[in-house]
């Protein structure tokens, strides 16, 4: 097991805390920009790509859980790092879409409307919260602090899985209202 020095730990904590704050703030600021950038029609496909990314992330999270329960640490590590990479790709794609396109309003009526907004709001709130947990879990795993990694993933895993699944559900619910 690798030992982490206190100075390294402080630097890592600073980076994690900064990213966990900076990412949602940057996304909120970017979403608030009213003047959209024209990068072409291809950006209208990004929500569909994001739906695929969230679906793949859900599968990878469940596979990672399965692998660790089977004590296949190497497969778990590869799977979870791939899920982390997809999450990062999703973030870039999500921001790019909202920089280039107006948000699509949900057109559903009746009982489905509050269900959609409950899922959407809980998804958004927990997607902000999960960043800190996931960054910390990845750091602990990569720095060999497995006991701390396990303690962190007790929260990170279910939140990340919920965010991933609700991302797919919200996408499927709003999909009929996209332009194409």
UniProtKB/TrEMBL annotation:
<dbReference type="Pfam" id="PF04238">
    <property type="entry name" value="DUF420"/>
</dbReference>
<dbReference type="InterPro" id="IPR007352">
    <property type="entry name" value="DUF420"/>
</dbReference>
<feature type="transmembrane region" description="Helical">
    <location>
        <begin position="80"/>
        <end position="100"/>
    </location>
</feature>
<feature type="transmembrane region" description="Helical">
    <location>
        <begin position="45"/>
        <end position="68"/>
    </location>
</feature>
<protein>
    <submittedName>
        <fullName>DUF420 domain-containing protein</fullName>
    </submittedName>
</protein>
<keyword id="KW-0472">Membrane</keyword>
<keyword id="KW-0812">Transmembrane</keyword>
<feature type="transmembrane region" description="Helical">
    <location>
        <begin position="155"/>
        <end position="174"/>
    </location>
</feature>
<keyword id="KW-1133">Transmembrane helix</keyword>
<feature type="transmembrane region" description="Helical">
    <location>
        <begin position="12"/>
        <end position="33"/>
    </location>
</feature>
<feature type="transmembrane region" description="Helical">
    <location>
        <begin position="115"/>
        <end position="135"/>
    </location>
</feature>
């Amino acid at each position: 097991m690798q030992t982490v020095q206190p100075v390294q730990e402080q630097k890592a904590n600073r980076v994690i805390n900064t990213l966990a704050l900076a990412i949602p703030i940057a996304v909120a600021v970017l979403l608030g920009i009213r003047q959209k950038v024209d990068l072409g029609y291809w950006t209208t496909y990004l929500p569909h790509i994001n739906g695929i990314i969230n679906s793949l992330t859900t599968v990878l999270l469940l596979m990672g859980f399965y692998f660790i329960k089977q004590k296949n640490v190497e497969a778990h590590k590869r799977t979870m790092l791939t899920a982390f990479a997809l999450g990062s790709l999703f973030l870039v794609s999500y921001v790019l879409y909202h920089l280039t396109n107006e948000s699509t309003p949900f057109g559903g009526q009746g009982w489905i409307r509050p269900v959609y907004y409950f899922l959407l709001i809980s998804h958004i709130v927990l997607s902000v919260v999960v960043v800190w947990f996931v960054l910390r879990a990845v750091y602990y795993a990569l720095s060999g602090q497995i006991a701390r990694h396990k303690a962190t993933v007790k929260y990170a895993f279910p939140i990340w899985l919920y965010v991933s699944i609700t991302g797919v559900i919200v996408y499927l619910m709003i999909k009929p209202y996209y332009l194409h």
